Amino acid sequence: MTRASVRNTRHAAHLDALEHAYADILASHGYDAVLLYSGQAHTFFADDQQASFAPFGHFLHWVPQPGIQHSWLRIRPGDAPLLRFHAPKDFWHLAPEPPTAAWTHRFAIEPTPETGPPATGGGRVALLGEVEPSLARELGAELNPPALLAALDELRLRKSAYEIDRLRDANRLALAGHRAARDAFEAGGAELDIQLAYLAASRQRESDVPYQNIVGLNAHGGVLHYQHYDLEPPARQLSLLVDAGRRDAGYCADITRTWAGRDADPRFAALIEAVTQLQQSLIDAIAPGVAFPDLHRRMHEQLGELLVDQGLVCCSAAAAVERGMTRAFCPHGLGHSLGLQVHDVGGRRDAKGRYLPPPRQDPALRLTRTLETGMVVTVEPGLYGIPMLLEPLRDTSAGRDIAWDAVASLYEHGGIRIEDNVAVTETGADNLTRET
Q1: Residues 6+ apart with CB under 8 A from 298
Q2: Fewer CB under 10 Å: which end of the chain, C or N?
């Protein structure tokens, strides 16, 4: 079979599974049908310009058209899914064309210049998406019922073979951007130059990225969500951290790499290699039945060993964890669920929709589930020199065991994060980032 025919076959199986799952979920919650709204871009206050558009994930789960606004999908078990496709007559903008790909043959497609929903078809109906409550009242539908949303979130947590293919392709495209970013860095580019090189190589415009790319030179790599692009390169080229992704049919890649520059302290390159090895050992431990918070704790245990081995602390690895040193060097969680959203749904709830809080000492951990086959997660340990977190330790007992001269060098270099996207398989892990 050709690659395209394999993709079509897997997509058909994905839609088959969605139809059966939605029929079961709607029946178990007492609904006859559900209307899913794709969403629309928001206009800035007192302006006529709009923010970038992001479609509703549950709509996109069915319809691989991430750019369409004001469109609706009606799911009524027993009937073909009805896609009410917004196709306005417009000379200001290029009007969207109704899709014609193979998957469309199993949908009833209704192109329309109108933005309103299709008829519900009667019975008890749920309306999901960002819509006005008045519309739900007008239709006699229930707006965003929490129990139904939780059940559909749970459905998205495990990815089909088709979805894994899309995530793998998103990684392949993103990696081309990361290679170009490294080349631009080594050529002496500024942060903006590196960002533009990334976008060109990954073949996307800035409004299409799944999240704002982080391109941090030197100390900027220690700002976890650094949000700017300097126009001029720094005088010294110490380090680059790039956290940047790509979408494929709505599915997100989320990859981070760190490189040492020509003026870097030799210890920094050794730290990058150590964090990379730590990350790969954590990926090797992924398997069904492994609790992600346990992997997060293992990250801190291994960070403690790394800090000792690299001469950043002079106590035991266990003490570095117990006394809070590892969390000062890495304040974020090990990773999160990944899919149609970068921080995908269902990461902090169990299979019945009950809240699963993060550990008290790790409130930033976004994934608290036990791993299952079909889940896709990021694995992104980090090691940063963030003065705001480390300096308060200086006058404590923990501070007496920190090698402050080495830490001062880490401040200049910002920090390290190595992030891959990993699918949980029946026997372990499939690294979607390293194998593309």
Answers
A1: 282, 285
A2: N
Same domain, 320 and 353: yes
Verify that 136 and 179 share a domain, yes or no. no
Could you tell me which of 226, 242, 238 has the C-alpha nearest to residue 193? Answer: 242
Task: Please tell me whether 243 is known to bind a ligand.
Answer: yes
Task: With beta carbons less than 8 A apart as the criterion, state whether 393 and 385 touch.
Answer: no
Residue 55 domain boundaries: 3-157
CATH of the domain at 89: 3.40.350.10
Residue 279 φ then ψ, to 5°: -60, -45
According to the annotation, is 165 in a ligand binding site?
A: no
Last residue of a domain, one of 106, 132, 157: 157
Tens of each residue's pLDDT in the chain, 436 residues: 788 899 999 999 999 999 999 999 999 999 999 999 999 999 999 999 999 999 999 999 999 999 999 999 999 999 999 999 999 999 999 989 999 999 999 999 999 999 999 999 999 999 999 999 999 999 999 999 999 999 999 999 999 999 999 999 999 999 999 999 999 999 999 999 999 999 999 999 999 999 999 999 999 999 999 999 999 999 999 999 999 999 999 999 999 999 999 999 999 999 999 999 999 999 999 999 999 999 999 999 999 999 999 999 999 999 999 999 999 999 999 999 999 999 999 999 999 899 999 999 999 999 999 999 999 999 999 999 999 999 999 999 999 999 999 999 999 999 999 999 999 999 999 999 996 4
DSSP string, 251-312: EEEEEEEEEE-TT--HHHHHHHHHHHHHHHHHHHT--TT-BHHHHHHHHHHHHHHHHHHTTS
Q: Is the pTM of this model over 0.90?
A: yes
In 3D, which of 74, 66, 77, 98 has the Cα closest to residue 22? 77
Residues 426 and 316 in one domain: yes
Phi/psi of residue 410, each to 5°?
A: -65, -35
Query: Under 8 Å CB-to-CB from 222, ≥6 apart: which residues?
Result: 216, 384, 385, 386, 411, 413, 414, 415
Same domain (yes/no): 38, 98: yes
Number of domains comprising the chain = 2
